[in-house]
Write a structure and sequence with these properties.
eight-stranded antiparallel β-sheet, globular
Length: 250
């Protein structure tokens, strides 16, 4: 369509008239928006995001005994004990050693190098003193529930661990009253989650923060009970030898 251009005389009048018409026109102050385009649906199926399951890097060991086999996970949070134990296992240090001290509702202890060829009735438990002790690695979250692996030690003031002797906890079920009494004696508060474990699974709470816990049995926990309850002499040594073979699992 062609626009008609007004003459010079009427130019000002024309402009004012045009402006008044435009200003009065409805909707002038608001630009008309174009409707937004609807998103085009993809013809492809949207697959759910893959959940990445992180594989555990924890080291597992297998303890084979005359009474059965246990699979033990070593904790990463106690690296000094973990690495020392793995080193000895790979060297074959524990092969044919005995569980030389067993006490029902308490624990089974082994790892004394003098036990390999010990005669029946010989008192054991002092071997390995020539090896360097392992500094204590106490962790508030690691406690003596049933089935844990912990390091034995002598009465050194630093509470450093034996380089080779260890024990596995059988323990017993505790009541609230017993745990309350233990808290009073030690002057510490047992966390609720740990208290619940001692009341249901059992363990040896009086050893907490005194001996380093560095692993736990994942399979074969019943073997601890079998070994702990064998006939034993006055030194708590089993009357029949219970030997071990330990290997790192791949």
């Amino acid at each position: 369509m062609n626009f008609i251009t007004p003459g010079k005389k009427n130019f000002t009048v024309f402009i004012l008239l045009l402006a008044s018409i435009l200003i009065a026109a409805p909707g002038f102050s608001q630009m008309k928006k174009k409707p937004a385009k609807k998103p085009v649906k993809s013809v492809h199926k949207i697959l759910p995001k893959k959940v990445l399951v992180q594989k555990s890097t924890a080291i597992h060991i297998k303890i084979v005994t005359d009474s059965g086999t246990m699979v033990v996970m070593l904790y990463d949070s106690t690296p000094l004990h973990r690495d020392n134990f793995v080193k000895l296992v790979k060297q074959g240090f524990y092969d044919s050693l005995l569980f030389h001290r067993v006490i029902p509702q308490f624990m089974i202890q082994g790892g004394d190098p003098q036990s390999k060829n010990a005669e029946a009735g010989t008192a054991l438990g002092n071997g390995g003193g020539d090896l360097t002790r392992i500094p204590a690695e106490f962790r508030p979250s690691l406690f003596h529930k049933k089935g844990v692996l912990a390091a034995a030690r002598d009465g050194n003031p630093e509470k450093a661990s034996s380089a080779c002797q260890f024990y596995l906890v059988e323990g017993k079920i505790f009541t609230d009253a017993e745990l309350d009494m233990l808290e009073s004696q030690k002057g510490v508060k047992i966390p609720l989650t740990q208290r619940e474990a001692y009341k249901t699974v059992g363990g040896t709470p009086f050893l907490d923060q005194g001996y380093t816990v560095f692993g736990e049995v994942e399979k074969g926990i019943e073997v601890i009970h079998k070994i702990a309850n064998v006939p034993r002499d006055t030194n708590n040594r089993p009357q029949g030898d219970i030997r071990m073979h330990i290997e790192v699992m791949k």
